[in-house]
């Protein structure tokens, strides 16, 4: 109902509002263009290019951030030694690094993947660190009393306990990675991707109906990704949800 209400307001504002329809086409027109685009092979290739870059970036982010978070969260000396550089790098917007990335990497897919990785690492990293901070020390002491070493405790106790926090970080990073991939395609240009499609549609003839149709596709992809990760959380980590409800 909320979605229908949004489209109704958009339709009314576009047809009756002060903004000309050429700048804000109504959803009835945008959805028709969207249906046409779904049958366009080149547009589908652009969608696949963006989704593939997103998947690669998110996978690399998980591989980097989870081990780094476990290390920083379990070894206080390393955490203190790296705090300054981490807090210096974390606030830097990834889009501000686009000129540097273009010089160092070029304008190919590696640029958008690298920037998406840079932006996506932080939520997973800090969620993993926070998970270790919130872990009950009695669990660690119990594992050590059974003769488990540091590495065994880390992977058999700390990592399973951190899983709900890590997956929450992955959900946050999934949205960030998609935003960075599409934004980099739009701002840095390129030969494929949703951002490149939106850029081409907005220049020249200024087809705002195509721009909004491409934007809607990006929103639908982001919504589907979040719903899929939430389903994984509920089904794969049901024990953590039951524990939260019991507490």
TrEMBL record:
Annotated Gene Ontology cellular components are:
plasma membrane
Query: Per the database record, which ranges form the ABC transmembrane type-1 domain?
Result: 47-229
Q: How does it sit in the membrane?
A: Multi-pass membrane protein
Sequence intervals crossing the membrane: 47-72, 84-107, 113-132, 153-170, 176-198, 210-229
Answer whether the UniProt record assigns the keyword Isomerase to this protein: no
Highest taxon in the source lineage: Bacteria
Give a yes or no for keyword Transport in this entry. yes
Cite the Gene3D superfamilies for this sequence: MetI-like
Q: Which keywords does this Swiss-Prot/TrEMBL entry list?
A: Cell membrane, Membrane, Transmembrane, Transmembrane helix, Transport
Q: Which terms does the UniProt entry file under GO BP?
A: transmembrane transport
Entry-linked InterPro entries: MetI-like, MetI-like_sf
Where is it localised? Cell membrane
Q: Which family does it belong to?
A: Belongs to the binding-protein-dependent transport system permease family.
> What protein is this chain from?
ABC transporter, permease component
Natural source organism: Saccharopolyspora erythraea (strain ATCC 11635 / DSM 40517 / JCM 4748 / NBRC 13426 / NCIMB 8594 / NRRL 2338)
